[in-house]
Amino acid sequence: MEILIYQTYEELSKASAQVVADLINSKPNAVLGLATGSTPLGLYQELIRMHKEEGLDFSHVSTFNLDEYVGLSPDHPQSYHYFMHENLFKDINIEPQNVHVPSGTTSNYHAFCQWYEQRIEQCGGIDIQVLGVGSDGHIAFNEPSSSLGSRTRIKTLSEQTIDDNARFFEKKEQVPIYAITMGVGTVLEARKLILLANGTSKAQAIADAIEKPVSSMCTASALQLHPDSIFFLDTQAAGKLKMLDYYQWIQAKKPGAPPSS
Ligand code: F6R
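A: This is the predicted complex of the input protein with fructose -6-phosphate.
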C-alpha cells in the first residue's frame, strides 16, 4: 500500500487525477472504475480541465461505476447516473456506449448483477478503480459485515450511511435503503486501486483501513490484500494514523528511492 498525504483537498485531487491521466495517456482504451459522492469531485474537475486544456482523450475509455441506488431512475437528480453525467461525462468526450453504471430500476437485479460482472470481464477488467470511503469504512456500498469475497449484488445500507447521505436529499426518509453495488471481491480484481479521503469524518475509517487487521467490519481494509493500492489523503483524513510520521517520511524520500521496475 502506498499512503500519500497532502495539505489540501485540491492537491490530493490533482495528484490522483494525474495517476488516471497517466494511465489514459499510456493506454487510450483504459477501463476506469468510478465512484460518486463528494470525495472524487475534485478529481473529476481536474480530469475535465485536462481534457479541455491538454486534450486528454476519453474517446476510447470505458467506465464502470461502483454502485447505484435501487429505485432511482437515471434522470433522478440523486441517482448516480445523473451524478456522473453532471459531474464528469457531459464535459469529456466519452462515448455513451462505453459508460456503465449499475441499473437502479432493472426488473431482474440478479441477472443484471451477473451481466455487470461479465461486462467488466469482456472489457478486459478494470485498470484503475477510484474509491471513496464511508465514515463506517465501506468501499462502494459494501457495508460492515460484507464478505471480502462478495460480488455485484444488492446491499442494504447502514443507518450511518443513510445519515451521511441524507445531505444530498431533502429529507432523510428519501434516501433509498437498498443499493446495487460491486462487491469487495469485484473491486479487488481491478489492477490498481486508488482510494481518496478528505476531512476529519473519514479519519477513523482510514486508521481502521490502514492500521487495523483486515476485516469485513471495515471493508476498506481489504485494500491491504491488493498488490497495487494507493491512499490519497488530506492531513485531516490522515489525522488518526499512528504511523503518520513514517508514511510522510516514505513520501518525502520517494524521489530518491531505487526504481522498483
Ligand atoms: C460512491 C461510493 C461510496 C462513497 C462513500 C464516500 O459511489 O461507492 O462508497 O465513496 O460513501 O462518500 P463521500 O465521498 O460522499 O463522502
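The CA atoms of residues 145 and 216 lie 5 Å apart. The chain has a mean pLDDT of 97.
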